[in-house]
Design brief:
The protein contains 6 helices and 11 strands. The chain is an alpha+beta fold. The protein has a single domain, classed as 3-Layer(aba) Sandwich (Protein Transport Mog1p, Chain A). Strands 2, 3, 4, 5, 6, 7, 8, 9 and 11 form a 9-stranded antiparallel sheet that branches. A two-stranded parallel ribbon has the order 1-10. β8 and β9 form a beta hairpin.
């Protein structure tokens, strides 16, 4: 009889733990980011142009479309003739296999050689962003790349950053969304390419609304917590 009572208590505790875990599961999704409507065709000295060059697609590695809810691919040119290829991809769920694909994987999968990977800081008048820079090439095409990834409006560079964001969402029970921001250019001179990419990113972020800018880059308005 005593053993039966112990078993019932253990079963009740296990059920209680399962209910508590279920109750704490994230259920709320962040509002969608409408990239095509939010990102202007023209800003500063930049404007969009038709581009026939191959643009590396962040979806190719899986061949499915449910990873990203919104995608934007554009080429911009400035008054000096500098061309920047912009790719932005947003997904409403960053759990498990639906996580944003990092460019070093996408470029390798599509035949490029990734020569160098470095973690650096992109400086803008609105604040600094932790970014990753790649130098890549495919035959005679040399394509330096600058990118970052955000989860729930915070830049994440590694698994530690991701876990920190996930823990921060426990109270609100939000499902972490994710966004890839990637700029690249065809240029054998990587330092020059990165300089132009930095200027482009700063100009674009300045042209976005404060809300969209925060979710895209993690940059918050002055005085915001």
């Amino acid at each position: 009889m005593q053993m039966k009572s112990v078993a019932l208590v253990l079963a009740a505790l296990m059920c209680g733990a399962a209910v508590a875990a279920f109750a704490g599961m994230p259920r709320e999704k962040f509002p969608a980011i409408k990239l095509k409507q939010s990102v202007p065709d023209r800003f500063g000295t930049w404007s969009t142009v038709e581009e026939k060059l191959q643009v590396v697609n962040p979806q190719v590695t899986r061949g499915i479309e449910d990873i990203y809810n919104e995608e934007l691919t554009r080429t911009y040119v400035n008054g000096d003739g500098d061309r920047i290829m912009l790719v932005m991809a947003w997904g409403d769920d960053q759990r498990d296999a639906r996580q944003v694909h990092r460019p070093e994987i996408c470029y390798s999968y599509q035949g490029f050689t990734v020569d160098r990977v470095s973690d650096e800081t992109l400086h803008t008048p609105l604040g600094n962003i932790s970014v990753r820079r790649l130098t890549t090439h495919l035959d005679s095409r040399y394509e330096p790349v600058t990118y970052w990834v955000t989860m729930a409006g915070s830049v994440v560079r590694n698994d530690y950053d991701k876990r920190k964001v996930q823990l921060g969402l426990l109270q609100t029970r939000h499902i972490p969304d994710g966004l890839l921001f990637r700029v690249s250019s065809i240029d054998r001179n990587a330092p020059h390419a990165f300089k132009v990419q930095q200027q482009f990113a700063a100009d674009l972020l300045a042209a976005l609304s404060a809300d969209v800018r925060g979710r895209v880059s993690g940059l918050k308005p002055a005085g915001a917590s």
